């Protein structure tokens, strides 16, 4: 029995380490949380949202049915639904409908006067707002500025600008390879001339 005790203790020690280590389980795919509940019947896609001037285009799904596109016009406070090529009539947004809840949370993204960000936002609205602002920031950073557009429009001015630029090297940098490259460039035309003479 004395001999079995260290073996038992080692076994218990190893098992306790295994059970208390964090396991790599869990959901790492963020796409799994793409569709979130608005209420007990409706789901909303929190990734695919398009904000254009006074319109919001997003995807909603009634549980048990296919997803459809919901287009909210925040200026006129109306909506329409699209399913494939079928488009519904434009209807006003009423207080009692799910469209009012969505418009109330998201219409401020269109920057139309009279809409403000709600203080208490559900999780789906926070996620959509975060994704929409990230898309907007990404589009703004990708778009060239006005100065860049005018500079690229005048190639002659661009060439002059490139010629006038001077290269400033610090004293610590050495450029021995530059002289070697210049010498090799001078030798190549001489070699071509020599090859032409042989023919």
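Sequence proposed for the structure above (199 residues):
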């Amino acid at each position: 029995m004395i001999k079995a005790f260290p073996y038992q203790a080692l076994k218990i020690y190893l098992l306790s380490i295994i059970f208390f280590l964090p396991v790599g389980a869990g959901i790492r795919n963020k796409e799994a949380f793409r569709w979130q509940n608005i209420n007990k019947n409706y789901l909303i896609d929190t990734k695919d949202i398009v904000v254009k001037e006074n319109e919001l285009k997003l995807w909603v799904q009634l549980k048990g049915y296919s997803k459809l596109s919901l287009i909210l016009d925040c200026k006129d406070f109306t909506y329409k639904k699209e399913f494939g090529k079928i488009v519904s009539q434009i209807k006003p947004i009423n207080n009692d409908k799910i469209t009012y809840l969505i418009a109330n949370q998201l219409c401020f993204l269109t920057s139309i006067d009279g809409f403000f960000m709600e203080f208490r936002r559900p999780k789906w609205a926070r996620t959509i707002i975060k994704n929409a602002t990230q898309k907007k920031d990404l589009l703004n950073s990708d778009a060239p500025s006005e100065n860049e557009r005018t500079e690229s429009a005048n190639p002659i001015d661009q060439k002059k600008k490139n010629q006038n630029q001077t290269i400033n090297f610090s004293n610590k940098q050495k450029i021995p390879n530059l002289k070697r490259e210049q010498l090799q460039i001078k030798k190549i035309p001489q070699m071509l001339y020599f090859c032409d003479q042989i023919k």
